[in-house]
Amino acid sequence: MSTAESMAGTSLRRSWLVATLLLTLGPLLGAVLAAPRAGASPSAGLGLLLFIGSSVHVAGTGWFYTVPEVRRHLRANPGRYLVAPAALIAATAVLAAVVPARAFVLVLMTFFGWQFFHFQRQNLGLSALASSAYGCGPLRPGERLAVNGTGIAGIAGLLSHPALLQLSGAPGLGALFPIAAAAYALGVGYGALQLVRRPRAQRPAPVSAVYLTSLGFFLPVFLFDSPYAAVAGLTAAHGYQYLLIMALVAGGGPGGRQSRSIALAVLLNIGLILGLALNLASHLHTGPAPARAVYGAYLGVVMAHFVVDAGLWRLRDEFPRRFLAPRLPYLLSGRPAAAPDGGGDRRDQQHHGDGHAREAQQ
């Protein structure tokens, strides 16, 4: 690798990391500042923030289905990429149409639990990706445990405080909330300790910043009573993380500038057009049975997004490595350009970013 290529890789890697931090912390803080007063409607700005971070980001997964190389892989693995998404969409559409609202809240709690677990798996993937890309090796078991643990505690906090999810009729689990808060605090402390135990050379500021952001991701859940201040920022931050790396994948493909521009344009149009459809469907939960079925299908699409991304970003598998590494060489190369000491364990890169990476949200 030439000096110029190495410098370019270093610059791109740094730009990705800075942008990831800004697109995580910005929405988290922005949602807190823009949260409406109790009983008031969200502002247009907050609504746009959520639209892009939720519906557009879920729709963006559809871009993979436009890439011939990916489509061949999907057809070769129909169970995950064709049958499972269709089954999820059909099942949730039927459930939403026939299950009474008071019982359907249990389906919604399951959905939200999976969604926010998806969020934290993406955070775990981003932390692992940053560590590997900067030549610091894979995340240690204790570091992974802390990120997963804080995510589980955050999910427990949300489900025990269903008003944050605007769920009426949910089971009373309020006694669990302080326990979840204590577990979350312990997880953050344990994770910080694990980071400090790394040799100084293996915890540079960029890597530490991404990891600490992952640990603190669910902090708003335990600080605010407003659904928008506590939850909207999580949703938006997750979505923007995902859209950033999807744009890098689409814009980093083979071919000249024109083909990469076309790929980015396709991603943008899919995100906006399908995102608008998803956004409309997400508001049909209180209508008649046919409308509720459309709302259920919307939930199924979001869950299908979890399933599809979990497979396409699993870098321990051959196809994701072969497809993604040439598009993101400054992040996924075995020997990062800026880190001649070597790269990380690809098993720790598998979540991308969600688990993003596996993701989920909405």
What secondary-structure arrangement, pairings included, does this model have?
Layout lengths: L2 H32 L9 H17 L7 H9 L1 H21 L2 H33 L7 H19 L16 H21 L8 H11 L3 H5 L3 H25 L5 H25 L7 H24 L5 H7 L4 H4 L30
Helix pairs in contact: 1-8, 1-10, 2-10, 2-11, 4-12, 5-6, 5-8, 5-12, 6-7, 7-8, 10-11
Description of the molecule:
The protein has helices at residues 3-34, 44-60, 68-76, 78-98, 101-133, 141-159, 176-196, 205-215, 219-223, 227-251, 257-281, 289-312, 318-324, 329-332. The protein starts with a helix and ends in a 30-residue tail after the last helix. It has 362 residues and is an all-alpha fold. The longest helix has 33 residues, at 101-133. The chain has 14 helices and no strands. α4 (78-98) packs antiparallel against α12, α5 packs antiparallel against α6 and α10 runs antiparallel to α11 (257-281). It is globular and about 65 Å long. 70% of the residues lie in helices and 0% in strands.
